[in-house]
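re: the backbone from monday

yeah here it is again, tokenized this time
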């Protein structure tokens, strides 16, 4: 799979909204919020020194130069998930970029920071369905890395995730992949329908979740977590029902289990419900869908493992 880049305009990204949601709200940096950020930065000066050292990595330094708030966004109270302490948000930011910068060779780190890294492509008839990942450029408070599904070159769906320390989500695992955002592209219903029908009736969210598991496999991560609706950064009481449907119902349907910590968690690979509980007449199709998702997971893991994390010299 060749590596490629593609520009993302602010206009297109702002058009991203969760399917069935009225739209995510961006938090403005008002003087009041800025004062809180400064206060939390002073109180966590030790952690911020570690962040500044991390930004010596060339690709991250370039992001910080073009987006000055990059180095400070973990100080926002709604960074990644509502209710995290500043120390937890700092540990998530540091852990993710320590992991990525140490695992990805320089040119690939630069690639994900400035464009897309294609992981897997599927061709059906005359249509191309591509899975790629890159550092989140907009709405980046909701996840450091975005995984995209492209249909014939256009982004139609994405999931945002961050590699975080397990204790942040009250897991005994050393690290987990935390999903904090699922969104479909506004006006992409036709392409989403095309993708679903072409990819063995597997919805884009499930395709992306399979790819996330492949990324986890490549990094040796064995657990996945996700935010509940109420902990999603853009959650609001006026849209609680929509968020419940778009997040809680989605993750429950995908096989993740809610925890007392306010997250969903599951071991990788996600098992799904037993075939014995699948209605007669649907078992063959269920097997085919599971086989397809497993193939996506394996392909993404293999590409990262063979070409990025352990390239053949």
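seq for it, each position gets an aa:
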């Amino acid at each position: 799979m060749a590596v490629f880049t593609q520009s993302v305009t602010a206009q297109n990204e702002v058009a991203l909204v969760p399917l069935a949601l009225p739209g995510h709200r961006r938090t403005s940096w008002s003087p009041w919020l800025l004062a809180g950020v400064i206060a939390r930065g002073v109180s966590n000066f030790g952690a911020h020194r570690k962040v500044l050292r991390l930004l010596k990595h060339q690709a991250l330094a370039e992001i910080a130069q073009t987006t000055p708030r990059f180095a400070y966004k973990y100080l926002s109270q709604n960074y990644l998930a509502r209710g995290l302490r500043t120390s937890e948000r700092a540990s998530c930011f540091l852990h993710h970029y320590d992991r990525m910068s140490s695992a990805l060779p320089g040119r690939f780190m630069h690639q994900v920071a400035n464009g897309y890294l294609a992981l897997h492509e599927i061709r059906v008839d005359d249509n191309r369905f591509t899975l790629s990942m890159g550092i989140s450029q907009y709405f980046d408070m909701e996840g450091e890395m975005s995984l995209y599904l492209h249909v014939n070159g256009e982004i139609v769906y994405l999931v945002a995730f961050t590699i975080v320390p397990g204790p942040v989500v009250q897991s005994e695992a050393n690290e987990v992949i935390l999903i904090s955002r699922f969104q479909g592209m506004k006006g992409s219903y036709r392409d989403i329908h095309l993708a679903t029908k072409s990819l063995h009736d597997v919805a884009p969210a499930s395709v992306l979740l399979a790819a996330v598991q492949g990324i986890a496999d490549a990094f040796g991560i064995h657990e996945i977590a996700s935010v509940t609706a109420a902990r999603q950064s853009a959650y609001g009481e006026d849209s609680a029902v929509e968020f419940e449907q778009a997040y809680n119902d989605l993750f429950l349907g995908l096989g993740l289990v809610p925890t007392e910590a306010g997250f969903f968690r599951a071991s990788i690979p996600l098992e799904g419900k037993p075939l014995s509980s699948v209605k007669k007449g649907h078992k063959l199709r269920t097997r085919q869908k599971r086989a397809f998702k497993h193939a996506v997971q394996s392909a993404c893991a293999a590409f990262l493992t063979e070409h990025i994390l352990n390239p053949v010299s």
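The first helix runs from residue 10 to 14. Confidence is low (pLDDT under 50) at residues 1-27.
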